[in-house]
């Protein structure tokens, strides 16, 4: 597990936060500092605690232990409206009887904000989100993407320092999700506000985040830049969660022959002379991981490792093709260009450099 790095004067600081539902521990002594203007994504499978953590930051759940600071102020027991946050939920939660303009202004009117100030904030949010032509429509006359823009606008008019997004795109189709990802990224670039975003979608996380916090069982497993997490995952869980298709995993043993380390599986020996060990290795059960795009197809000589494998399934993806192989008794996936597509049953040569691989302890799952 990778601990959160300390940040001077963080915009949001979570310190030793724990949350228990009876005897069930949901969040476990969690620490996270978010820099001012940073876009942090909380990523993980269902039930990992990411939405629960966001709700704790928002003040929608009372924590069991720890403290929460926003802009240097201890807000652990503050009401949600007093925390200086704007929140966008998975469901649009728009008032169906109100126009877009009335939906955007509702919270401001309840708070007693002057009419001219409300008008300025709505005009600004509508311009940023490109929803000016929609202001007099009701939600029933809007598409899913337009409704989500309005939901974002409702948070935007609050003019706060920190925005919280709870899986805001999960109800949209793939095309709309792609379009709104770009819009949210541009919105962050324009506003430069701190944003904390929850998703189980790794593509959203990789494309939006300055840093990703990968969560499992209420614990942050790794917190780092997207490409660092992708290339150097700290454990097998993180390695398997990021990447589509997932990283190839081969179960075997770490062995030393003379002065050289290698990975042994069945009658195959993968040399590890180019592999960068994280810590002093020891012989024993291990898992070798390599991403499908880091494998060379029909490789010639010159690779540190080559082998012959049998093609099981060919899956055309348009610009490239996924080839599912059998390497010995283990499944193996290779991403190749669409021009180099083999046929089912073909025997093919593959090669890769262990420098691009990840090696994990067979018992703990930690990176070696």
Automatic annotation (TrEMBL):
Keywords: ATP-binding, Nucleotide-binding, Transport
Signal peptide positions on this chain: none
Predominant location: membrane
Bilayer topology term: Peripheral membrane protein
GO terms under cellular component: ATP-binding cassette (ABC) transporter complex, substrate-binding subunit-containing
PROSITE patterns, A to Z: ABC_TRANSPORTER_1, ABC_TRANSPORTER_2
Segments forming domain ABC transporter: 12-242
Subcellular location: Cell inner membrane
One Pfam family in the UniProt entry: ABC_tran
InterPro entries in UniProt: AAA+_ATPase (IPR003593), ABC_transporter-like_ATP-bd (IPR003439), ABC_transporter-like_CS (IPR017871), ABC_transpr_MalK-like (IPR015855), ABC_transpr_MalK/UgpC-like (IPR047641), Mo/tungstate-bd_C_term_dom (IPR008995), NA-bd_OB-fold (IPR012340), OB_MalK-like (IPR040582)
CDD domains, alphabetized: ABC_MalK_N
GO biological process: carbohydrate transport
Alphabetized NCBIfam families for the sequence: PRK11650.1 (NF008653)
Family in the record: Belongs to the ABC transporter superfamily.
Name the UniProt record assigns to this protein: Glycerol-3-phosphate transporter subunit ATP-binding component of ABC superfamily
Species of the source: Mesorhizobium plurifarium
